[in-house]
Amino acid sequence: MKRIVIKVGTHVLTENGSIARERMMALVELIAELKSNGYEVSLVSSGAVAAGYTQLPLDRKEIANRQALAAIGQPLLLKMYQEKFAKFGLLCSQVLFSADVFDSAKHVTHAKVAIDTLLANGVVPIINENDTVSIEELVFGDNDRLSAHVAHYFDAKMLVILSDIDALYDKDPNQHEDARRRAVVNEIREDELSAEHTPNNEFATGGIVTKLQSADFLMKHGREMFLASGFDLSDVRAFLVHGEHRGGTLFS
Ligand code: ADP
Question: Cα–Cα distances in Å, from 63 out to 13, 67, 218, 248?
Fold first, then answer.
């Protein structure tokens, strides 16, 4: 079994402030296809705050409001996933972590037993930080770091980040027309890891730097990361299902 973790960010999962149902459906369909191709897939999903906002439009600039929106939205988000996975005859499950779970070997061991058991039974774990009580990723990160830890500690071969950008470029492609895609990256420079954060929109809080930090962490632990578009899943499908590297960046 090839164990992977897929991470999808807020920007991909939301549209005009609510959940982008068609993109969520495309993602669920991809996961179903991957599972029938022998992959064990866990999903790290943002979107709880956006789902909550559709029910109660609190000011999202306030962290306290985002905590409350996450509490409202998390069950709604899971319900949407459950309905979509059910179309493929699949069960999904909710796994919420506090930010410090990876600081404790005991907690990691307990969590891994649960994840292993879910995967062994064909269930898709849908993982998120418990944003209501631990605000780290709400403030900064948008789950890039959480997903790298999930991939490492739960022994996945690869983390797949589905982003609003389709690859890593030699400079920000939204600022520079002549930016060139980097297909394979083996090493990340110190200055790239500490560069200024560049979140692309008001809800995406990670930017490219947290992705590079995640890739660096995984490569140092002998694992891989693949960064590709979450809007158009053809590159990630080609890479994972057909073994063709057409687009996206492989960190290896
Ligand atoms: P996500 O969809 O995962 O939330 P973000 O919006 O947080 O993604 O981060 C991706 C953004 O990072 C891109 O839209 C792009 O504007 C910016 N960026 C800055 N530098 C680069 C680079 N060298 N390669 C790719 N994207 C970059």
Answer: 20, 6, 29, 33
Residue 242 has, within 13 A of its CA and on its CB side, a CA count of 10
Tell me the C-alpha distance between 51 and 245, whole Å.
34
- Tokens representing 8? 């999808």
10 Å Cβ neighbour count for 150? 25
Give the span between the Cα atoms of 29 and 26, in whole angstroms: 5
pLDDT in tens, 7-34: 998 889 999 888 999 999 999 999 999 9
Token duo for residue 144: 């890039």
CA of 103 to the centre of ligand 1 (A): 28
DSSP string of 41-87, one letter each residue: EEEEE--HHHHHHTTS---TTSHHHHHHHHHHHHHHHHHHHHHHHHT
- Going by the DSSP 8-state scheme, the letter that residue 11 receives in this structure is H
The ipTM (two decimal places) reads 0.96
CA atoms within 13 A on the CB side of 110: 8
Report the candidate in 43, 40, 44, 62 with the shortest Cα–Cα distance to residue 53. Answer: 62
List Cβ neighbours of 226 (8 Å cut-off, separation of 6 or more).
158, 159, 160, 161, 236, 239, 240, 248, 249, 250, 251
- Ligand 1 pocket test: which of 10, 164, 209, 229 has the largest number of ligand atoms within 8 Å of its C-beta? 164
The pTM for the full model equals: 0.94
Compute the distance from residue 56 Cα to the ligand 1 centre, in Å.
29
